[in-house]
Description:
This protein is mainly alpha-helical. Helix content is 79%, strand content 0%. The protein has a domain of 53 residues.
Amino acid sequence: MKPFLHNFLDVSASSLIVLMFIRAILSCLPNARGRISDFIVQITDPMLNPVRKFVPVTGGVDFSPLVFFFLIKVLHEILAALIGT
């Protein structure tokens, strides 16, 4: 059971990080509007909005994806230690 939980945790964390990375790239491209970018925004906004309450946009740059990367990494490490992998 532990290998399954460990793999599930790794895939979930990696997927969230990839989505946030794509979101960060799309935010730098003002003309990148379409179905895919709208879909990624719809998926990532509910996760980023709570972070944005504590990390405001500074100088026109949204640092919430960076903070989210850090939080996901920390949470991943904590859960991996609890699972015992």
